[in-house]
Specification:
Blueprint lengths: L3 E2 L1 H9 L5 E4 L3 H6 L9 E4 L2 H6 L1 H7 L6 E4 L4 H12 L4 E4 L2 H7 L2 E4 L4 H4 L3 E7 L4 E8 L2 E5 L5 H10 L3 E7 L10 H8 L3 E3 L19 E4 L8 E7 L8 E5 L3 E5 L7 E2 L7 H15 L8 E4 L16 E2 H4 L10 H11 L6 H10 L6 H7 L7 E2 L3
Parallel strand pairs: 1-5, 2-3, 2-4, 4-5, 9-10, 10-11, 15-17
Antiparallel strand pairs: 6-7, 7-8, 8-9, 12-13, 13-14, 14-15, 16-19, 17-18
Helix pairs in contact: 8-9, 10-12
């Protein structure tokens, strides 16, 4: 057995229900705040690293001999030593390369099932950053691709688009993100592609964001002589005042942080929860009202593995989401009060991430990794 296992291999094993034990050796606080999830149940044993060293013999007796063991820590160092000890005791143990940091950065591309008459014209890929619950997208039409809500590891989007046989022609952000550092501006600059984002002219993004077209339509041309694919820019304020959603081919709504499959975007991150909450109500009940119930909603975040469909994609039809408790509240005032009362305090890093997304020059690599540790807290539910 190999001494190490990569995140992708581990997640494939966990998703298919392969029997194994995750041995998490982080401290109590970090383990309680964030752990590895999969689409099947995960057997996990938590033993802090120093507790393991203090009574190694007793803890070795607790380890199952019938199961493979994967040791996990924050970055892979402490767990590597634990895995060595386990193998020395005759157990089948491997270390997770890069630990929880690698889990938090891992991108898993999943194809979005399209209607039959769309399947030959374009493809949509949902890139799931499962450790953070962040969802970004690559839309490919022939030789051209659009990247939506990319995270900071831009080289992964570049290599993925290249593997599809396409080039990056558009880069889009739905809003100024608070939970993760956007790679939008950097990716657009490296690709020499137009960059569109949900951000006002008054903010620091001005000068990096391409002015939107007057009719709000972006066109992705598969080739010079083929009909272009339309990406309509829809103003969907509420989570932030300048939030955008992108309607692909009239049927697939990339909803950013406006609407999730299990709730709505929190409107409190700018300290204007009631005012932004009323705006979010109008977005959900008026600005999206004209879209048919069959519209497939593809959000920018997920709250966990339970929201993944049988096809592996985080998505729902708009008609289903209109039955959410948040969308059944009758008035903007009641909606705003209910949502404001339901939000939990945002992580302290969120204000720093917003500032960094407005001015990438202030980002320090070590700080960036620390800011993006743990699950996101972008959704709110009245339940």
């Amino acid at each position: 057995m190999d001494a190490e296992i990569e995140v992708a291999e581990l997640l494939r094993a966990l998703d298919t229900g392969e029997p194994l034990l995750l041995l998490d050796v982080r401290n109590d606080h970090d383990f309680a705040a964030w752990r590895i999830e999969a689409r099947s149940s995960v057997e996990t044993l938590h033993v802090p690293y120093f507790a393991f060293l203090e009574d190694e013999a007793a803890l070795l007796r607790r380890m199952p001999r019938e199961l493979p063991i994967v040791a996990v820590c924050a970055r892979g160092g402490s767990s590597a030593m634990v895995a060595d000890i386990l193998r020395g005791a005759g157990l089948r143990a491997r270390n997770l390369v890069g630990g929880m940091a690698a889990y938090g950065d891992h991108l898993d591309p999943v194809p979005v099932p399209l209607l039959a008459d769309d399947a030959g014209r374009f493809t949509i890929w949902q890139l799931q950053r499962r450790g953070r619950g962040c969802l970004s997208y690559v839309i490919r039409a022939g030789e051209a691709a659009a990247v939506v809500d990319p995270s900071r590891h831009v080289e992964r989007y570049e290599s993925f688009v290249q593997a599809l046989g396409a080039r990056i022609a558009l880069v889009l952000d739905s809003h100024v993100h608070a939970d993760h550092l956007s790679g939008g501006a950097v990716l657009a600059a490296r690709s020499k592609a137009p960059y569109f984002a949900g951000a006002s002219d008054a903010c620091a993004l001005h000068g990096r964001v391409t002015a939107p077209p007057a009719d709000g339509r972006l066109l992705l041309a598969p080739s010079p002589d083929a009909a272009p694919l339309e990406l309509a820019m829809l103003a969907t304020p509420g989570h932030t005042p300048d939030a955008l959603s992108y309607l692909v081919g009239g049927r697939y709504l990339l909803s950013g942080d406006t609407l999730f499959v299990g709730g709505v975007g929190r409107p409190d991150l700018g300290d204007h929860a009631l005012a932004w909450g009323r705006e979010l109500f109008r977005t959900l009940h008026e600005r999206l009202a004209h879209l048919p119930d069959t519209t497939l909603v593809l959000p920018a975040h997920t709250s966990g593995a339970a929201e993944v469909g049988l096809d592996g994609v985080v998505s729902r039809r708009l008609g289903e989401l209109r039955g959410l408790p948040e969308l059944r509240i009758a008035s903007p005032e009641e909606f705003a009060r209910t949502i404001a009362a339901s939000v939990t305090p945002p992580p302290p890093s969120y204000a720093r991430i917003v500032a960094a997304n407005l001015d990438p020059g202030i980002v320090v690599a070590e700080e960036a990794a620390a800011w993006e540790t743990g699950a996101n807290h972008c959704a709110v539910s009245a339940r």
